Amino acid sequence: MSIRSLTGRGAITRRRFVIGTGLWGAALAVPQRSAGAYAPVYTPASGRPDPLPGTRFDLTVGSVPVNITGARMHAVGVNGSTPAPILRWRQGDTVELNVTNRLDEPSSIHWHGIRVPADMDGVPGLSFGGIAPGDTFTYRFPLHQSGTYWYHSHSGFQEQTGLYGALIIDPRDGYAQHFDRDYVMVLSDWTDVDPEDIVSNLKFQSDYYNFRQRTVDTFFRDAHRQGLGATIRDRLQWGAMNMAPTDILDVSGIIYTYLINGQSPAANWTGLFRPGERIRLRFINASAMTLFDVRIPGLTMTVVQADGNDVEPIPVDEFRIGPAETYDVIVEPTADGPYTVFAQAEDRTGYARGTLATRPGLAGPVPPMDPRPLRTMTDMGMGNMDMKGGMAGMEMGSSPGKPGEAPASGGMDMDHMDMKEANRPGAAAMDMPGMAAASRHKTELKPGVAVQSVAMMPINRLAEPGDGLENNGRRVLTYADLRATIPGADPRPPSREITLHLTGNMERFIWGFDGKKFSEAEPMDHNIYMHALLDQFEARFGADGGQFRYDGQAWFGTDYDKLWLKSEGTVGTNGKFGDGDHEALYDRAISRYFDVQTGVRLDIDNGPTRAWGAIGVEGLALYFFNVEATAYFSDRGAAGRLQGSYDILLTNRLILQPQVEVNFYSASDRARGVGTGLSDIDTGLRLRYEWHRKFAPYIGVSYSGTFGQAADMARSRNERVQDLNFTFGIRTWF
């Protein structure tokens, strides 16, 4: 039995620490055997796996110093390395891995794609308790399969911060496809920002990292190209769903640096070769949430394996790889090159890049990124209809099975359509494999807090290359191209069908199965978030002088239940505090976009104090209008407040916001200057510039006025009934 010890920092023989260029600064422990000779082990950054498989490993999880962007940070790695060491096993062996946790928090390792006993799967909270700080857990399991896989943490955000590595299982009977050289190509996304902050930001503002949204400028450009009517209809259709076609990736190159084998584009990972060699490239997408479109200009890639399963060789120029997917390809360069390995993010905000070269120091040309894709109504589960009566993305005359081509009728498999059913009155005319099952379950899933929308017309799109890859002049891999060469281990037909809907709410940033997030199922895992927003912090100047006004709120809690605090008021030139309104509310999410709130309101300022009970709703109405409606009750009567605002994107940072607040009362209160009926209104138009999503100075105009009895009271005190003010201030949140 071979033994490979990968114990931590005591066995370190080499340290690589590169600053500024984007290389991982990591100390690598060189594995050792207890006895006997062994082949040299290559560093993870090289992408070269150990040529000899092992069966026993010691892995130590700990902190690793890195410098990707020019800032010294700490990642989570294995044996002083991130990406973690490449593990090489052999089908039929039993492996034993002793994993020691040197972090100050629990950790774990999940063997992605490997068929193992449940207690060896490494997912805390299911059949595994995790690895406590200072503890060692021994994984032991037989290897029933072969292929390219990967391993990563399933604890907190440790995967995002570097705890991932490649895993190769050699087939017992040798490889079906000959190759002369072997490289692992681990794609990932790195950020210097704490991943907890990223999630928190997305909880507050789901498009926080999207600076490629539609703006006033794109509206006029689209109107010029498509016509005003078509452009308005398109905006209304997306607005009616509170969604945007520019929502491609939740986190973009604004905050991510994309890596190959832990190296940034500036570092230029390089794999050496000799012309005429067959090179096997094992692509692994170890990113947290990035889809990559991969190509090597000048070389054809022959896909020979997908997710560890050998497939019939299929030559392509490009393929899309989603998080956790793996593809093995073979390339055969006949010239010296160099050749660029180019992996652009799906939203085209950045790319990972490396080079295949005949000697170190060479760099291949970096191609420009493709135009950014836009979502379509087909992507939203509306079949092929673009909601204007047309057929979106229809490619007539093409056939399935050819790389980069869509099947006839834009994804509809005509050979499997039941035309009798299609001609039935009221039929969807899209009866395809899987459609009946989808229809059966369609009514079981309804929009709610964790379900933003339900795909009403799902269609088979396995033969489509994906958004942004259609008709780009390159042969693009599709799922329909993949044909396994080895039949499954269990030839029996399925005896039971379990349907799981992948659901989510992009606005609330909630994800789950069948409308339930993980924290709603045992074991419980409630995450707490806290935010505070100072929406208005401004000075106002008008005919009667000036005043200072603030309006802020803060909340603390889970996705469903929160404690919500609100406060607003003004300070005049006389130093008196007025319009003081302070609320403490319990907030409960009740629908896709709305919360119900109930609690107390206290009017506290230089006037007499008043106490109210409060109940209302707050949320996002259709077409992205932020609205709030609250009713108040006390022994003095009832009151009501309506608030609304809307963000008009002149650019992705320059935002014009109209805002209005209206107050009603059932009874007058002379001491506080409120009257029966419509009492007062405060409205404004503010132009802010988001230097940072969390900080935006603004200028604008504001109008405040009193009406009816409230206006009479103001006149009796020689106060202005209406004010038009120039306003400047800041909007900030955390």
Keywords:
734 residues; mainly beta; twelve-stranded antiparallel β-barrel; six-stranded mixed sheet; 8% helix; 39% strand; disordered N terminus
Write the layout of secondary structure elements.
Layout: E1 12-16, E2 26-29, E3 56-67, E4 72-78, E5 84-90, E6 94-101, E7 110-112, E8 136-142, E9 147-152, E10 164-170, E11 181-190, H1 195-204, H2 216-226, H3 228-239, E12 257-260, E13 269-272, E14 279-285, E15 292-295, E16 301-306, E17 309-316, E18 318-321, E19 326-331, E20 339-345, E21 351-357, H4 408-411, H5 419-422, H6 435-442, E22 502-505, E23 510-513, E24 529-542, E25 545-557, E26 561-572, E27 577-589, E28 594-603, E29 610-621, E30 625-634, E31 637-645, E32 648-649, E33 654-665, E34 677-689, E35 695-706, H7 708-716, E36 722-733
Parallel strand pairs: 3-6, 5-10, 11-14, 13-21
Antiparallel strand pairs: 1-2, 3-4, 6-8, 7-9, 9-10, 11-12, 14-19, 15-18, 15-20, 16-17, 16-19, 20-21, 22-23, 24-25, 24-36, 25-26, 26-27, 27-28, 28-29, 29-30, 30-31, 31-33, 32-33, 33-34, 34-35, 35-36
